[in-house]
Amino acid sequence: MKRIIALLLISTSIGVAAQSTADLKNHYEAYYKAMKKQGDIQGVINAMTHLNILEPSVARRDTLAYLYLSEGRYMQAINTVGVDKNESDSDMNVELKALALKNLNRPKMALEHFEVLYKRNPNVYLAYEMADMKIQTGDYAGARANLDYAKANVTDDMKRAYYETQQPYETSMKAALAYLDGLLTFSEDKTANIDKALKLMNDALAIDPNFNMAKMSREALEAQKAQAAQNSTNKQN
Question: Lowest CB count within 10 Å: 95, 131, 161, 206, which one?
Fold first, then answer.
């Protein structure tokens, strides 16, 4: 008799727990819809976090990480999806890791995931990002390969956004690639290539005279060239 009562109690407990979980899931699904309708991103994040705890899924995890990424909370995004490279990862998952790590100033780690994306779907925008990061990490040969691909496939309608000013702006991708080529050329040999790099900055500004990054880089190169000439004159004297 005691055994029967115990089994009934266990069965009842399981039923109550299942009902409680279902009720919570329904509650947070409704909460998620309400927060999404109201544009409350933190509320959406809270709802998705609870839903992923109640009923974990890759889709929920990736959505949660994407929400963190869109809010500029890169560490939370990485903590949600991890940093490991897995061939089975969805494109969204790989892109999340790549962008979060890039914004956390981890270019070498970010490049591992950018390479996966590039292998799956090579395009000019990815090639630009990879060339930029490879310049930062000193992989000039790799940067040159990505840059050559981008220059061979760029079209007139492509744009690239920059954020170094208070007001973000866009420039022609062709101008952006000329600017990046100037940075790479200078990095390859900072003494012999300064004039080549200056020409490329001028090429970028010929396409877009308002391209701020190219303007600043040209000014820096001109200042360095003037300083080198002054140092040479001082040595001769």
Answer: 161
